[in-house]
Amino acid sequence: MDLSAEDAKLVTLARATRARLGVAQGAAVRDLDGRTYAAATIALESLTLSALDLAVAMAVSSGAKGLEAAAVVTEGDVPIRTETVREFAGAGTSVVVAGPDGAVDTVLEA
C-alpha cells in the first residue's frame, strides 16, 4: 500500500519509538499544524496507556487543535482502539497500522 510521504513519516516515527523502548506498540500522530508526536505503550502497575492514546494525549497537552492522521506500529494481532483519535480529531481520520518492519497492514478510519 502506498502512503503519502507524511504518513510514511508517521510510520517511521512510530516504528523507531517502539524499537528504541522495546515495547509492543509505538504510535505517532500529526496535528493540524503538521507537528508530530510519538509515543510508546505504557504498562506500569498504576498506569496503562496504549501508544496511540498517549500520542493523542501529548498532542492535546501541547495545544493541538486536531489531528490529520495517526500511525501505530505493533506486532501480532493486537486490536487497535481508535476512539481517542475519533473524539479529538473527528470521524474519518486515518490510522495507519503497520508491522515492526514498517509494512502497512491496514488503514483504519477513526
Structural features, described:
With 110 residues, the protein is an alpha+beta fold. The chain is 32% helix and 32% strand. It is built from three helices and seven strands. It has a five-stranded mixed sheet with strand order 2-1-5-6-7. The chain has a two-stranded antiparallel ribbon with strand order 3-4. The longest helix is centred in the N-terminal third of the chain and has 17 residues, at 5-21. The radius of gyration is 12 Å and the shape is globular. The two termini are 19 Å apart. The mean pLDDT is 95.
Q: Order of strands in the sheet with the most strands?
A: 2-1-5-6-7
Percentage of residues assigned to helices: 25-40%
> What is the CA-atom radius of gyration, in angstroms?
12 Å
SS-based class:
alpha+beta
Count of alpha and pi helical runs? 3
Largest sheet: 5 strands, mixed
Strand content: 25-35%
Q: Compute the average pLDDT.
A: 95
Poorly predicted runs are none
Shape: globular
**H and E string:** HEEEEHEHEE
The number of distinct β-strands equals 7
Q: How far apart lie the N and C ends?
A: 19 Å
